[in-house]
Amino acid sequence: MNQIFSFKRWWLLMRRHWIENSKFFLFGSLSLLGVIAISFMFLLVNGTHYQAYSECILYLIGLFLVGAIFASGAFDALQKKERGIAYLSLPASHFEKLLTHIFYNLIFFTIIYSLCFYAMSEIFELIVKSRVQAEPYKYSFEPLDWEHPREFMVAKNYLITIFFGVQALFLAGSIYFKRFSFILTTIVLVLFILFLGYYINSIQHGLLRGYYGTGASLHSLGLSLPAKIYRLPPALVFILKWLLLLGWAPLFWLVAWFRLREKEI
Amino acid sequence: MIKIESLGFAYKNRAVFEALSIEFEPGHIYGLLGKNGTGKSTLLRTMMGLLFPDKGVVDVFGYNPSKRRPAFLQDVFMVAEEFYFPGVSVEKYVTCNAPFYPAFNQEQFWQYLKEFEIPRGNNLDQMSYGQKKKVLIAFALACNTRLLLMDEPTNGLDIMSKSQFRKVMAGVATEDKCIIISTHQVRDLETLIDFITILDNGNIQFHHNIEEIQRVLQFGFSFEKALPEDTIYKEGALTGQAFIKRVEAGEDNTGKIDLEMLYKAVNLKGPAINAAFAGVN
Lengths: 265, 281
Prior knowledge:
The complex is a heterodimer.
Chain A: H1 7-45, E1 49-51, H2 52-72, H3 81-88, H4 94-134, E2 140-142, H5 151-154, H6 156-176, H7 181-205, E3 211-214, E4 217-220, E5 229-231, H8 234-246, H9 248-262
Chain B: E1 2-11, E2 14-24, E3 28-34, H1 40-48, E4 55-60, H2 70-73, E5 76-79, H3 90-97, H4 106-115, H5 129-142, E6 147-151, H6 159-170, E7 178-182, H7 186-189, E8 195-200, E9 203-209, H8 210-216, E10 217-222, E11 231-236, E12 241-246, H9 259-268, H10 270-277
Parallel strand pairs in B: 3-7, 3-8, 5-6, 6-7
Antiparallel strand pairs in B: 1-2, 1-4, 8-9, 10-12, 11-12
Transmembrane segments (chain A): 24-45, 57-78, 98-120, 158-177, 182-200, 235-258
Keywords (chain A): Membrane, Transmembrane, Transmembrane helix
Protein name (chain B): ATP-binding cassette domain-containing protein
């Protein structure tokens, strides 16, 4: 018997998770629809010039925020002794248990959230278009223009990878912190971003004083010519870029897996 | 077989076990007794792989429980004192949990529920604590795991349920199964247990089977003031005195063992009890 991964056991876990949480998923989806509807109502009430761009911003904010809240409750079974005993003594490997949560938090959540958002956004656009039709001098609607994309449209692939990383961080946080995992993980994230900002700033004003950077290259600012240019090999730039973009999620999943293995109740 | 050697375990600021060594064999129902905080639940959770030893070895059927491997987990079950059920029906609970245990027997499960008088289609979150506990016990027994750990299984059960519990448990002990029941309510399990283990301050204070106890100790009651010379422990009752004495050489002792009195004797007259059992294995 494979002690790390068995498709049969994983399927049983996925089914168990679905059966035991189906009511929560149903009510959760209904509340999500409600919250999205309220957000759209604010857009409707507070303006006459509607932009599909605003919907996309709303979608991303919701995806990150609700996704983080959902992920930080993933391992809430471990926060209480009685639930933790049942969960940890269930005959499945830690990897299978983690994979189940990754599936429900990343794939299942994203699909449900997107469907809810899409449904509400269709209704919103119907209302907006009928308003525009009825009073074209008062209301206007600007659809997304992919030929002249705005910043976030260009960065959508990066945003998706960042979303994976944030989700994975909050998933790991739900195992790490016994209580208030959402708040504590948010604090950790904010501190990390502040530290990173400070660190980059220190390097720029300390080690790299007299240089300026463009992409993956550094140029010296010396008065004497010729100026020096330091450049990383393109292959290394490519690897580093995607490692930094895609590496966070696997890193936090690994952290979560180790923490789950070490978990004592 | 379960082998624990030199087990050391401490919570953040409290040591529970220093160097505990004990063995549990299949084919027995062990009664794990001890005062509050002596480490009974900790020992069960360590055997289940829910707590990791600081030192020493815990070996359960050749597995290290701390690894929590699926092959190990599907052969052990723990009925915890505090337990959790999702808000689903009994049938749904069985559908999604039973397949994890290869030896699970559906027929057995429904039979136990019938004996416990639990309606089949009820939702678990609408049941009382006692009813839920009976569902958990029925599920645990139907899993047919080689090791069954029960932490205070009769807590929260009414008088009738305790009797049903004893009846059901009496039928499950087999040669290949090891059942360890931690309890304070010894009277509930008196007729079930065939091995008594008493923990005190993280040490094994007493670990003997019923035959050994009967060979060494005799439980009696005297209506007179005078007690047998070799009385080890006595306690007053309304009409006389209950006592425990050593069985004399050649004396046939088939009398009933009063577990509660034995427990008190071990706690209050430990050295005398140990002296009586010296050389008994």
